[in-house]
Specification:
This protein is an alpha/beta fold. It has helices spanning 22-36, 77-87, 98-112, 125-133, 156-171, 198-205, and strands spanning 41-48, 56-61, 67-71, 92-95, 122-124. The chain has one domain. It is built from 6 helices and 5 strands, in the order αβββαβαβααα. The longest helix is centred in the last third of the chain and has 16 residues, at 156-171.
Length: 209
């Protein structure tokens, strides 16, 4: 459930999760929550058509799921780069694979003669999702592929929405893990509890409430 007043996600009920590194998983959850609490970013995606023409589609999506730029197929590279430059001023670009997205944009900018297109930085959701599912460093894992549920041959608009869904999935996941049910040594849910203040420590020392 997506909520855009106060918290921007609804946390799912806590449950035991099998994960090789819960610190990594929780870091990815916090990354997604921090992202959704800001509005200084766009989700950007590019996709190649399965048609013989091999045309490119491109899309720009905001946190609330609104499309701000959609080209399918992308024909006028000059116009696209000009509009992207205006929309991207002072914003980060969230994508599935930052390296791939930057390569696509570099090629489009070169075709438009916009060799000095200055936008970015680019953030990889794929990298954070790999931490979330416990596949960091696993090049052949599920996170090395496209987002789960993305139809084959999907255009850039569908791709951006799939990326946003992954961000919401991570943000809405509970950080509460039962340490007794996991194999991660030394991890405790107490790590995520508010730290005791000096006054609290004095009260505990003297048995005060």
């Amino acid at each position: 459930m997506r909520v855009f007043s106060g918290a921007v996600w609804s946390v799912m009920p806590s449950r035991e999760v099998s994960h090789p590194d819960h610190f990594d998983r929780n870091a990815a959850i916090l990354w997604a929550r921090d992202l959704l609490n800001r509005d200084d970013w766009w989700i950007i995606a590019f996709a190649t058509s399965r048609q013989p023409s091999g045309s490119i589609s491109a899309a720009l999506l905001s946190r609330d799921g609104k499309l701000h730029l959609a080209e399918d197929p992308l024909v006028d590279c000059v116009d696209f780069c000009q509009r992207l430059s205006v929309l991207g001023a002072g914003r980060q670009f969230v994508c599935w694979d930052a390296e791939v997205a930057e390569r696509c944009l570099t090629a489009i900018a070169a075709a438009a003669g916009e060799l000095n297109l200055a936008i970015g930085p680019f953030l990889s959701v794929q990298e954070q999702h790999a931490r979330f599912v416990g596949e960091k460093g696993n090049a052949s894992g599920a996170s090395a592929n496209l987002p789960a549920g993305l139809p084959a041959g999907a255009d850039a608009q569908v791709f951006t929405r799939a990326i946003l869904d992954v961000v919401f999935q991570m943000a809405g996941s509970s950080q509460v893990i039962d340490a007794a049910a996991t194999t991660a040594p030394g991890w405790s849910a107490a790590f995520y509890k508010p730290k005791s203040t000096p006054a609290d420590k004095l009260k505990n020392l003297f048995g005060l409430k």
